[in-house]
Amino acid sequence: MSNKAKGSKAERELVKIFTEYGWRAARVAGSGVNDDSPCDLIAGKIDKGGVTVECKSSKKSNIYITKEQISDFITFSHMIGLRPVIAVRFNREGWLFLNPRDMKDTGKSWAISLKIAKEKGMRFGQFF
Question: Looking at domain 3-127, which of 3.20.20.370, 3.40.1350.10, 3.40.190.10, 3.30.40.10 is its CATH number?
């Protein structure tokens, strides 16, 4: 399975989780394909507001996201008045949700380690 197919599968899985918790969520067309799609999902729920979500999953213990991608993601989120959320899934750990400020600056990119995700990340019901 290609990385793009794995990413799409992860995004669909996350949409299903949002739906199970009573949210409405949609994948953003072209996410991960071009510069015109600054997030992976947009979701909202009455009395909870809306969020933009950047989804990442990995078999490794670190996830890296370019500084440009995160900058575009946060700018887009604020432009449309939604809260930016990073959703990460490491193998056999399930989804964890973090604020973008919880990422570590590596110089070239932003990183989320499994350790930080476990320390600062929350499960769906805790975060939302």
Answer: 3.40.1350.10
